[in-house]
Design brief:
Elements lengths: L1 H8 L3 H19 L7 H21 L30 H7 L9
């Protein structure tokens, strides 16, 4: 009878396998980002970096919008963005500015 008690206390095998398999994917994906030599230290750094980014994102307000001034006059001939979050699709930009001589190829 003690064997039955031990079996009942264990989690279902399928749940255990699925959870293990899902957690197994994360380090494998991170390993690709290392130089494959000192990978244990690099995996720890990647994990800390991801945790730090999650904490930063959690502190940001959900409705925060980014607004950057875009160069619109000839004197402001270029604009270097502070963020890559707000980008303009190049195809749409070329279509919208087809009559602009600066965009002519």
């Amino acid at each position: 009878m003690p064997i039955l008690v031990n079996i009942q206390r264990k989690p279902p095998a399928l749940t255990l396998v699925l959870q293990t398999e899902l957690e197994h994917r994360r380090p494998k994906a991170r390993y690709k980002r290392t130089d494959k030599k000192l990978y244990i230290k690099q995996l720890a750094q990647i994990e800390r970096r991801e945790a730090r980014l999650r904490r930063i994102r959690a502190r940001l307000p959900e409705n925060q919008t980014w607004s950057e001034a875009v160069a619109s006059t000839p004197k402001e001939h270029h604009h270097i963005g502070a963020s890559q979050n707000n980008y303009e699709h190049i195809g749409t930009f070329l279509r919208n500015h087809a009559d602009d001589p600066a965009v002519q190829v």
